[in-house]
Amino acid sequence: MPQLDDLVGRAEAFKKEAHSLFGQFESAPSRVIQLDESYQTLSVLNLKQDELVRQALRCVEHGLYRAAHVMAWAGFMDFYEEILQSDGLVAVRTLRDKWDHCRDIEELREYRAESALLDLAQPLQIASKNEMKALHSMLNKRNQCAHPSSFAPDLNSTLGFLSEVLHYLKLLAGKVPVLPAP
């Protein structure tokens, strides 16, 4: 069996090297595999979020680029909303006292736009002002994909979007809402 193990190991090494080389070409499917490999290093997602991001990766593999944007953003927003509710929405309600009718994150999702929720990132010290602007930009791309528009993302822009989503998932991991000092 050592020969078989050696052969399998060499095949895996070849596959990894081939994806690395072919990933440099603009339309190579290897780029999706490289993104999938970087996704696998992310361990902060719950099962629902993990499935949403995996669906986004599958959409890319099948050329469904608009759907990939929507699914990746759904996974990100669920993760972000989990951060907002990590203190029982105390910080959110303190910052937005007119939102006190929302008992939980589900009601907040129902009655508040995603852009309004993203506006909380900087004042609650979840993200910097520039990071919050980047999140709004990502939401705009997602909206272009989720609603009728002439926007037609290609492989490159979709991989860039997914890479950006993964970046912000890692960046925001472990953050908790913090109220600014009065």
Descriptive account of the structure:
With 182 residues, the chain is mostly helical. The chain has a single domain, classed as Up-down Bundle (Four Helix Bundle (Hemerythrin (Met), subunit A)), CATH 1.20.120. The chain has nine helices and no strands. The chain has helices spanning 2-22, 30-40, 47-61, 65-84, 90-95, 105-111, 114-118, 129-146, 155-172.
Q: Keywords for this structure?
A:
single chain; 182 residues; mainly alpha; Four Helix Bundle (Hemerythrin (Met), subunit A); globular
CATH fold annotation: Four Helix Bundle (Hemerythrin (Met), subunit A)
The average pLDDT is 85
Q: What is the straight-line distance between the termini? A: 68 Å
Biggest β-sheet strands, sense, barrel: none
Tally of separate helices: 9
**Radius of gyration (Å):** 19 Å
CATH 2nd-level architecture: Up-down Bundle
Please count the beta strands (DSSP E, at least 2 residues each): 0
Topology:
Blueprint (H helix, E strand, L loop, with lengths): L1 H21 L7 H11 L6 H15 L3 H20 L5 H6 L9 H7 L2 H5 L10 H18 L8 H18 L10
Helix pairs in contact: 1-2, 2-9, 3-4, 4-8, 4-9
What would a concise description of this structure say?
The chain is mainly alpha-helical and 182 residues long. It has helices spanning 2-22, 30-40, 47-61, 65-84, 90-95, 105-111, 114-118, 129-146, 155-172.
